[in-house]
Design brief:
Elements (H helix, E strand, L loop, with lengths): L8 H10 L1 H26 L27 E4 L10 H9 L5 E4 L8 H19 L4 E6 L1 H12 L6 E7 L10 H6 L11 H7 L8 E6 L21 E5 L12 H11 L21 E2 L2
Parallel strand pairs: 1-2, 1-3, 3-4, 4-5, 5-6, 6-7
Helix pairs in contact: 4-5
Length: 289
């Protein structure tokens, strides 16, 4: 795709209005925004973090996880939201048998990606001390994926993380945040090729950590859409395209939940040889329904 020669806005709009898929995406996205808006107050009341859910909530968790389903999952939300955006995905993870699901609330309006990643580091250290765990899985939506990456790649978090799953994360930055960068508002680190983005992408991803990036070509907040791809190469890196999804509908999509469940169900002790190299080729990427 030649990103230097964009289709004129009016032409692009006319094409979109003639395409039935436009209305499919819009409908899904409307459901995503309505769900997020309705759940938002709950995220304000439930505090800044959660110690997760054990199979027997009255019993303290003192043993390390023995299966992939026991490996703790920590949910990281995006800009302008809180952990309540994960209510449906969290419910589906619980029904799938995941026994330890945690969240971290933070205000991107008051803190940047680096400071939130340091808070994440402290929270994971606390979980390790209290629950005797060695590693966690991180799931990040939008900016939450960059917080996960910064912790793993710049704060030595790769020793404590088995799998990073990102949903609609602008791994190369997004032009939608350019205006924020120009006027210095929170979210400027999400801008296309921002200094933080370039820092993250300047070095190879750490060995031993699985990465799964779920993205959509119709994500209206990740511009260009291919920024949702992890361009690094490696046997533990996978990019999965879900067609006809918007930015918020990724959080409520059953097909996306199925992908997350399937990828996190792989035992964290699996060897590198069991992972497939799905590094994307030009105009070729893995699709999910």
């Amino acid at each position: 795709m030649d990103l230097s020669r964009p289709v004129p806005n009016m032409t692009r709009l006319a094409r979109a209005l003639r395409n039935p898929r436009t209305y499919k995406v819009a409908g899904r996205e409307a459901i995503g925004y309505l769900s997020a808006g309705a759940a938002y107050p709950l995220g304000l009341w439930e505090g800044s973090s959660s110690n997760g859910h054990s199979p027997h909530p009255t019993d303290p968790v003192t043993t390390a996880p023995s299966t992939a389903l026991d490996t703790p999952i920590l949910l990281l939300h995006g800009l302008g939201h809180n952990h309540s955006g994960y209510w449906l995905l969290r419910s589906r993870l619980q029904r799938a048998g995941f026994s330890r699901i945690h969240y971290l609330n933070y205000s991107p309006l008051e803190n940047d990606i680096i400071s939130i990643a340091k808070t994440l580091r402290d929270h994971i250290a606390q979980l390790q001390d209290e629950q005797g765990i060695e590693s966690v899985n991180l799931v990040g939506h939008s900016m939450g994926g960059l917080i996960a990456r910064y912790y793993v790649e710049s704060l030595d978090g790769h020793h404590n993380v088995a799998h990073v799953v990102t949903l609609g994360t602008p791994h190369q930055g997004t032009r939608a945040a350019t205006a924020l960068a120009e006027i210095g508002l929170p979210g400027h680190q999400l801008a296309w090729q921002s200094p933080l983005i370039m820092e993250l992408n300047a070095v190879p991803l750490p060995e031993g950590v699985r990465y799964t990036s779920v993205w959509s070509a119709t994500d209206q907040m990740v511009i260009p859409a291919e920024s949702g791809l992890l361009n690094h190469k490696g046997k533990l890196i996978e990019n999965i395209h879900v067609p006809d999804h918007g930015h918020m509908s990724l959080l409520v999509s059953r097909s996306v939940a199925d992908i997350v469940i399937a990828r996190l169900s792989v035992n964290s002790l699996a060897t590198e040889s069991s992972a497939r190299d799905t590094t994307p080729r030009k105009k070729k990427y893995r699709k999910a329904g």
